[in-house]
Write a structure and sequence with these properties.
GMP Synthetase, Chain A, domain 3; elongated; 3-stranded mixed β-sheet
Amino acid sequence: MVSKEDVLTQLDEVLDPEMEISIVQLGLVYDVRFEQKDGVTHAEIDMTLTSPGCPVAPEIMAAAHVAAISTDGVESVHINLIWTPRWDPKVHASEDAKFDMGIWE
């Protein structure tokens, strides 16, 4: 059975092209849920972007979809682009990503 961690591992390969940091490490992936219907595993992924006007939004979304659908056991994927809560690197990013961005607390 596929797990949230399996999908996050695949999504960790997707980099924000401007920062060259994983979307998972940046904290842009808020949730991964699964639905089973007729023996098919569908993944619903809630994610955001660093800003509403992100110029590479289509590329990031497409790369996230390709990464998630390549997870063993996942047959379909839907990416939900959400803006609440607003992304804040001090709150959502991993310690490694904060270090790479020069955020010291």
